[in-house]
Design a protein that fits this description.
This protein is an alpha/beta fold. The protein has one domain: P-loop containing nucleotide triphosphate hydrolases (Rossmann fold), CATH 3.40.50.300. It has eight helices and five strands, in the order H-E-H-E-H-H-E-H-E-H-H-E-H. The chain has helices spanning about 20-30, 45-55, 70, 85-100, 115-125, 140-145, 150-155, 185-200; strands at about 35-40, 65, 105-110, 130-135, 180. The protein has a five-stranded parallel sheet with strand order 2-3-1-4-5, sandwiched between helices. The radius of gyration is 18 Å and the shape is globular.
Length: about 200
Amino acid sequence: MSLSLGDSRNIFSGQSQQVSSHDKERLLSQKGLVIWMTGYSGSGKTTLAYGLEKKLFDTGILTAVLDGDILRQGLTSDLGFSNEARTENVRRTAELAKQLASCGVAVICSLITPTNALRELAAGILSEQRFILYHIATPLDVCEKRDVKGHYAKARAGQIKEFTGVSNPFELPLDAQYSINTAGQRVEESLQIMFNHVFPLIKT
């Protein structure tokens, strides 16, 4: 797949910003934040993302979940799974998360993001916002036993190419602020730990 990303050097905005990110955060009484979850398919990222969203929503926090599977049905539906396409997938997601967080939204991103280079790309785009990298550190064998989507079985059979954990590597995060292993731990326990981490950073 060939991506043409264009040249934005000649695009300029002549409109000055009249409402700052601080103004929007003050309106919502919360701070914009990006919680980026990385981990194998089946590690529990999506379950934790929507569960954390519900816990934050119940306390009055405005949230948005950017789920990689959902994004690939729309925003990134034109992308495959080559290194170049994965990079563009992360770039687009991070740019969207940046815009949402600048409005004071607590953004929860659920993407495999298999390499440290991709995680660094996301962190660099989001450098002006608060960026928390969460490693959902459920072991590969546990994720494969779950195989709720049937992807591992298909990858082992050669029906899915470039699948993380089978034909593509997953690099352990070098700079994750937090790590959660969902194996042998109830979902609610994991969610409470995550909530205790992030809520004080969001609520003003």
